[in-house]
Amino acid sequence: MTDWRSELQARIDARARSGEAFILAGAGVGLVGKAAVSAGVDAVMTYNIARFRMDGHSSLLGYLPYGDANGITLDLAARIIPAAGGTPVIAGVGAADPYRDLGRLLDQLLRLGYAGVVNTPTSGTYDGAFRAELEKAGLGYDREVEMVRICRQRGIFSLVYVFDTDDARRMAEAGADAISPHLGTTGSFSDLEEALQDAVHRTEQMARAAREIAPNIHVIAHGGPLETPAAVARVLAETSAVGYIAGSSLERIPVNEAVRASTKQFRAIRLRAS
Asked: To the nearest whole percent, how much of the chain has pLDDT over 70?
């Protein structure tokens, strides 16, 4: 069996040494995963949010009770892993699933061919009273931290979303291989410059917090104003992040644009004059 944890760590390190970003592509269908791999993506990620996204729905549906998140990830294995053609595929895991033993679920994902895990859907996207109730009920971020501890014990690669410096420290202490400072839903901003400055500040703030605990932990940027290659390049140039997780920016937005452009060209065809 491939030692995916060592393989992924080596891939990230190799990219960093060469001055290139490590790029992960979210994929909800095999076609997107295959296309991304053919273009040189370093790893593929798949999860319930990507499935909703490629069905034409908002990513936010992945955080609402309209599907079995872990069941979707299990189902996606047969669709995404073969399409990736040997490129590592990371599985989105909902750590608070009450119907699956977390250890057995991780084993099942490895048997299916997944190379590692990411904590999505994550309770970190919630805040306020609802987030407090999740934590009180034992269904919150603590479960995701526990998942990372299990992964470290079993040698499973873990890339995890963090939302503040406390999350970053906790995940570093638990043994995460990489953290991804989550900057919110990917999208356009009225003041892009201000949003990018904030993205740089928050990404580096969480990176430093994690490295206080684990100096060699990898940091991967994601979300918020990081919608275009130029925006991603800006944040990577001004932070210590060594890679980028592309979700909507690599599948939903490009697919929408390509299909719309092609359809308009076909729609412009005129019949021969009578």
From this structure: 99
Angle in degrees, CA 219, 221, 222, rounded to 5: 140
Phi and psi for 218 in degrees, rounded to 5?
-85, 145
Query: What is the domain range of residue 226?
Result: 4-267
**Is position 96 within any domain?**
yes
More confident residue, 189 or 35: 35
Tell me, yes or no, whether 274 lies in a domain: no
Q: What is the pTM of this model?
A: 0.94
Distance CA 20, CA 264 (A): 36
Q: Which runs of consecutive H residues, i.e. helices, occur in the chain?
A: 4-18, 30-38, 48-54, 69-84, 102-112, 128-136, 141-154, 165-174, 192-213, 229-238, 252-267
Helix (H) or strand (E) holding 40: none
Rounded to whole angstroms, the Cα distance separating 109 from 89 reads 11
Task: Round to whole Å and give the CA distance between 104 and 191.
Answer: 46
Within 10 angstroms of residue 113's Cβ, the number of other Cβ atoms is 18
**What is the model's pLDDT at position 149?**
98
